[in-house]
Specification:
The chain is of the alpha+beta class. 22% of the residues lie in helices and 37% in strands. The chain folds into two domains: 19-235, PmbA/TldD fold, CATH 3.30.2290; 246-452, no CATH class. The radius of gyration is 24 Å and the shape is globular.
């Protein structure tokens, strides 16, 4: 290895032993350099978990998982090759390194290829409290799932059927090293409880669900409450109607509002930008949202789903504002896409880290009461998004609002607009921030979209 960056490690002891992963990645790196690679990187992962599915009180599925993988990328000047395996034996590692080297000899040179710059690699590794393994047994998982489903089924007599309740727990270890001398590892856990039930009234049927997810089992919501929430969400949808086609404000409930931010991140990500396949080309420093909108990354939040000490290239992430006062302040880049654009990596190889949107001050109930007439969307269906033009069209279900009050549930709708226009016409962002995902935002109210119904 070169001496340009000292080896650093991060992690915590647990039931997954990181030593074999570290030894395997280091051996792969040594093999690549021995075969003449000018640069090389290796990433190893090991994950294990248990999932218990219950439906109508009986166990349907018990799944134990244990997966591992090793990916190696070699660079011969500006040419690169990659190969992977799930076998950590020396013979297998030697074989995939040889395969990666062979591939590199047949690929075209690309001056943007290569490792992230050595001076951008992480040197500090804060304890982000991401690893809390749960020794979940099949019996415990079964009981918890049954309690959750029972709470949902007992919520209302009109809930007649169930798609099931699931309790799952997983943990993983990830190791990344490269020929700049960087070696880092992290251990993470994720636990979840979910429930989906079906209600019936006057010949019509509806389904809905709810779930809780966290790094630590103690942070999960009560199983009974998860079930009751799933039940209440189904009951409120019974008797859904169709709307006449119209234009009206649309309020995206927090669990689905995060999808709007996903489209935004996709449009400002390096791959879309250098391919010129984004509706937000050349928008840096320009207003994308109203002035009250602030969007930023928080990679070092304790126990959060998107927290990390380094990205998939070993680069240190940053606490940074992506949108400030509605203005786009930066893109989302890894080292390759940054070079293609003549910029520097933003530490986002592999994605954003706890993307957060500040609320504008209103609760969801306030946003609803402030609507003269409009649509509250609680479910989105399909993926009718054109990332080049920003055209947006998705199936939807939810509730019709008039005079600040929910009137009745609605279904079989299509909402349509253009994302660029939608972002600029955001009227408010709720305080009901959903923290179960990597994108953390509240409900989003957008002014006047086309709602296609009857």
């Amino acid at each position: 290895m070169s001496e340009s960056h000292s080896i650093e490690t991060v992690g915590h002891a647990g039931s997954i032993d990181s030593k074999p992963l570290i030894e395997t990645t280091e051996f792969a790196l040594q093999e690549a350099l021995r075969k003449g690679a000018s640069q090389a990187e290796a990433a190893a992962t090991l994950s294990q978990g248990l999932s218990v599915d219950v439906r109508m009180g009986s166990v349907e599925t018990v799944e134990h998982t244990r997966d591992r993988g090793l990916a190696v990328t070699v660079y011969f000047g500006d040419c690169s090759g990659s190969a992977s395996t799930s076998d950590y034996s020396k013979a297998s590692v030697e074989e995939i390194v040889q395969a990666a080297c062979a591939i590199a000899r047949f690929t075209e040179a690309d001056r943007c290829n290569g490792l992230a710059e050595a001076d951008r690699l992480a040197t500090e590794f804060p304890d982000l409290d991401l690893y809390h393994p749960w020794n979940l047994s099949v019996h415990e998982g079964k009981e918890l799932a049954q309690q959750c489903e029972t709470a949902a089924l007992d919520y209302d007599a009109r809930i007649e059927n169930s798609e099931g309740a699931t309790v799952d727990s997983s943990e993983s270890c990830e190791v990344y090293c490269n020929s700049h001398g960087f070696l880092g590892y992290s251990q993470k856990s994720r636990h979840g409880i979910s429930c989906s039930v079906i209600g019936k009234s006057q010949g019509s049927m509806q389904r809905d669900y709810w779930y809780s997810a966290s790094r630590k089992v103690d942070d999960l919501d009560d199983v009974g409450q998860i079930g009751r929430t799933a039940g209440s969400r189904v009951v409120r949808r019974l008797g859904a109607k169709r709307l006449k086609t119209c234009q009206a404000p649309v309020l995206f409930e927090a669990p689905v509002a995060s999808s709007l931010l996903s489209h935004f991140i996709g449009a400002i990500s390096g791959g879309a930008l250098y391919r010129k396949a984004s509706f937000l080309l050349d928008q840096l420093g320009k207003p994308i949202f109203p002035e009250f909108v602030r969007i930023y990354e928080q990679p070092f939040l304790s126990r959060a789903m998107g927290s990390t000490a380094f990205d998939s290239e070993g680069v240190a992430p940053m606490e940074r504002e992506i949108v400030s006062d509605g203005v786009l302040q930066g893109y989302v880049l890894g080292s390759y896409s940054a070079r293609r654009l003549g910029l520097e990596t933003t530490g986002n190889a592999g994605g954003v880290h706890n993307l957060t949107v500040d609320p504008s001050g209103q609760e969801l109930t306030d946003l609803i009461s402030g609507m003269e007439r409009g649509l509250l969307v609680t479910e989105l269906i399909g993926f009718g998004i054109n990332t080049v033009t920003g055209d947006y069209s998705r199936g939807a279900a939810g509730f019709w609002v008039e005079s600040g009050e929910i009137q009745y549930p609605v279904e079989e709708l299509t909402i349509a607009g253009n994302l660029k226009d939608m972002f600029k016409s955001i009227l408010a962002i709720g305080c009901d921030i959903d923290t179960r995902r990597n994108i953390r935002c509240g409900s989003i109210l957008v002014d006047k979209l086309t709602i296609a119904g009857e």
